[in-house]
């Protein structure tokens, strides 16, 4: 498993709610999202917050820092500097306007229905493909020993399921997969719109899987990926390939000024690149094995160029989660500190 770079790694700081504050305004000012704040503070109705109450805020340790790290300097709790648009990396920042898109002809077929890709719980295509990248699944849909539960090496939190879910509301890996499938489905429309705006085909199996995987690892990097890196990919002479996607994933961990903010990898580009290369290679392996590359479909009746609505394939039974007495001694991260973005 790799260092987890998502919301669940963040150490909370506090914010006192002011008059006329809304959760969306607070989220925007603190470089986070309404969903993150709601999960972190056990808020059932984001429209009901009280002035004077204290909110816990996620700190930026999901692979990013709020300010660039320098030797001997800590950045925890530092004020975000102008231009550090982690949640809103822009096309303008990429130096691109009206990109002349090269298209998405990369040998991978289109997924006919992206919403179906994230349906089916632990048997969804997203769970299997991204789960292969996470190390919890195999391309044939079977499970590895870590699927039932394991301790994250990056933050000592307890992970469950195909996506290494660390949040609340899941007592089993199957429930964890259902929750994260819904999370990916909720982010799909924004990804689709960004890909089309860049001139790319959002249904391309490799491109879509890369976005789902990056959002699973680091929601904020995924935001930079769709806002800033997709227009670059559209102009990349290599096309949308494994190699160009690895570069895009690495660059998604930079701010708009090009400074690497990979705190989860000690700001080491070589470590980050090695991790992104491993993950992207795992996606390619899973997609190839599952018939998403043109000419490799396991169903000869499927026309080239379109993958039908995914139908969950039979798999071996999921391994029984280990009893509590046999699980890692580190307790699961409580709700106030967990929450995946």
What does this structure look like?
The chain starts with 11 loop residues before the first strand and ends in a 34-residue tail after the last strand. The protein has two domains: 7-58, Membrane-bound Lytic Murein Transglycosylase D, Chain A (Roll); 92-330, no CATH class. It is mainly alpha-helical and 341 residues long. The longest helix is centred in the middle third of the chain and has 26 residues, at 173-198. It has helices at 23-29, 34-40, 114-117, 125-134, 173-198, 205-217, 219-235, 242-251, 269-289, and strands at residues 12-16, 54-58, 110-111, 150-151, 158-159, 306-307. Mean pLDDT is 75; it is low at 1-12, 60-102, 297-317 and 320-341. The radius of gyration is 20 Å and the shape is globular. It has nine helices and six strands; from the N terminus they run βααββααββαααααβ. The strands form three sheets. The protein has a two-stranded antiparallel ribbon with strand order 1-2. Strands 3-6 form a two-stranded parallel sheet.
Write the layout of secondary structure elements.
Layout: E1 12-16, H1 23-29, H2 34-40, E2 54-58, E3 110-111, H3 114-117, H4 125-134, E4 150-151, E5 158-159, H5 173-198, H6 205-217, H7 219-235, H8 242-251, H9 269-289, E6 306-307
Parallel strand pairs: 3-6
Antiparallel strand pairs: 1-2, 4-5
Helix pairs in contact: 1-2, 4-6, 4-9, 5-6, 5-7, 6-7, 6-9, 7-8, 8-9
How many extended strands? 6
**Helix-and-strand structural type:** mainly alpha
Tally the structural domains.
2
Strand content: 5-15%
Global shape: globular
- How does the major sheet shape up? 2 strands, antiparallel
Q: Which bin fits the share of residues in helices?
A: 25-40%
What is the CA-atom radius of gyration, in angstroms? 20 Å
Uncertain ranges = 1-12, 60-102, 297-317, 320-341
Record the strand order, biggest sheet. 1-2
**What is the N-to-C succession of helices and strands?**
EHHEEHHEEHHHHHE
**Mean pLDDT, nearest integer?**
75
Number of helices: 9
**Cα end-to-end separation:** 19 Å
